[in-house]
Amino acid sequence: MTRLWNTPTDFADEMIEGFVAANGRYVRRVSGGVTRSTATPEGEAAFVTGGGSGHYPAFGGLVGVGLAHGAALGNLFASPSAQQVYSVAKAAQAGGGVLLSYGNYAGDVLNFDAAQERLRAEGIATETVTVTDDISSAPAAEKHKRRGIAGDLTVFRAIGAACERGLPLAEVARIGRLANERTRSFGVAFSGCSLPGAEAPLFTVPAGRMAVGLGIHGEPGIDETDIPTADGLAELLVSALLKELPDGVTDPAGARVVPLLNGLGSLKYEELFVVYRRVAQLLDAAGLVIVDPHVGEFCTSFDMAGASLTLFWLDDELADLWEHPVDTPAYRRGQVTRTGEAWAVSDADESAQVAAGDASSRDAATIALGAVQVAADTIDAHVAELGRLDAIAGDGDHGIGMQRGVHAALDAARAAAEAGAGAEALLTAAGEAWADRAGGTSGAIWGVIVTTLAGACGNEGKPAAAAVGQGMARASDAVTAYGKAEVGDKTLVDALVPFADTLAMETASGVGLAEAWGNAAKYATEAAAATANLLPKMGRARPHAEKSLGTPDPGAHSLALIMTAIGAYLRGDA
What we know:
The chain is of the alpha/beta class. It has helices at 11-22, 82-92, 106-121, 152-164, 169-181, 230-242, 269-285, 316-322, 359-393, 398-418, 423-438, 440-455, 465-483, 493-508, 513-530, 554-571, and strands at 27-30, 33-36, 46-53, 70-76, 98-103, 126-131, 183-191, 209-212, 223-226, 256-263, 289-290, 294-296, 305-314, 326-327, 332-333. The longest helix has 35 residues, at 359-393.
C-alpha cells in the first residue's frame, strides 16, 4: 500500500514538485508538466509525451537528451487535460513541429487529440503516435484498440532519437509508428496497487494466485492462474509474445530483439533477474539475437507486485536509432555529449480576465455557484464509493479524479464570483478548471458539459428555464460528439442523454427549472442504475467487460448523484 502522503488530492502536484526539485539538471516545471531544462535547437521536432501520474519513471522521468522534450503530467492514473498537453507542447516546441506520443487510453486520446487540434489551429505542425503494445488488451485483428504499457519506452526512444537527428516531423511520426508496430508486451500481477488515501487496493488477487494480462492502472487481469515458479513465469511471458510476430518477421530465428523485463512497483530486482535468466535462455533457444537487454522498473503502477515482458523487434533502421545516447532523470544509455543553454525563466502572468455580468446575471451566478458547491459536497460524500465502483473493471481513480476536478471548479467559481462574473463567465471558469485539474475522460467530459451549459446562461439578465434546458441539450450533443460514446456503451452518456432530453423537453413546455431538473434527475438515476446490466464498449473497462456486469457505470452514477443533489438545491430542499 502507499503509506506516505499529505492530502490525496494534492499527491500528484506535490510529487511533481519534489521530482523537479530533485532533477533540476534535467527538467524545469512548466504549466501542465515538465520540459527539458535546456533549450532545444531551433527547427528540431519536439517530442512530448504524458499520462497519469503513478507510473514513474514514465512519464516525467523520461524527459531529457535523447528522449522526450516534455511531458504532460496528469492526476493519479488520469490523463493530463488538453490544456496541460497544449501548455507543455507550447513550452517544448522549437519551430519544427510537435510529435505527441502516449499510451492508448480513452482519456489520453481525448485530451491529446484536443490539444493537437488547438496546436494545429495555431499553425504548429503536430502529429500523434499512440502506443498499443499490450497484446492482452485486444486481439491482433484489433491492434488499434490495444493499450500502451511498458513498451512505451521502446517507441519513445525511437522517436526521441529521430527528433535529435534532425529528421522532419513526418519522418519522426513514421519511425514512431514503425517502432510501435514492432513492440509487443504482456504482463502479470500478484497483488493490486493502492492509491494514496484509499482504504483498499484497486483489485485483489487471492493468495497463491496470479492475475494474467493486467493493465498499468490497476485494471484487473483477463485471467487468473496459480503463481508459477520464476522459470514458469518466464515461459508464460515468452510463449505468449512469440505467438504474435510483428509484420516483417516471418521466422524468429535470427531476428534481433530488445527484451525489456519491467517491474511494476513491488517486485524486486533480484526476483526480476531470476526471471530474466530463464527469459534469456528461451529467447536463445528460439534463435533470437538478444540486443541490449533491460531489467528494471520502466513503467510502474504504484506498489503493484507484478511484471511485464516487452520484445522490441529491431530492423536496421530501428537498431541504428536504438544506439542513440540518452540522458534523463530515470533512464540513461550511452554517452551524451550534447548540451544546451538553460531556458530563460518567464514571469508572464497567464491569468485570464473574467467578464463581469449585470446585476441579474450576477444573481444567477450566485445560484450557479451554489450548484457547484452542492456538486462538490456530493462528490465528497461519495468519493470512496465511486472509487470502489471504478475499481471493479477500471482503474479506481474516478472518485479522486471527480473530487479533484469539482473542487478546482468550485475554487474557480468562487474567484469568478468575487470578480463580479455573470453566470456564463462563472460557469466557463468552473468548467475549464474542472477539465484542467481533473484530467482523464471524466474531467474532459465535465468540462464540456459545464462550459457548454455556460454559453446558454449569458452575462446579461437571468437565463430562462428553456434556455438552460437547451443549453444542457447542446452539452449532451457536445459530449457524444467529443467522446464518441453512445447510449448503451455503459458510460456517463447513458445518464446524461435522458437527463438532458427530459430537461429540454419539460422546460420548453413551460415547466419551471427546479421541477424540470428534479424530474430529469430521476430519469438519469434510473438510467445510471440500468447500466449495471450493460457491458462496457469503451474506455479502460472494455477489456474486462464481464467483470462490470451487475455494477453501474461510475461516470453515469456520479452524474446522477450530482444532478439529483442540484435538483434538491434548486427546489430549496438543501
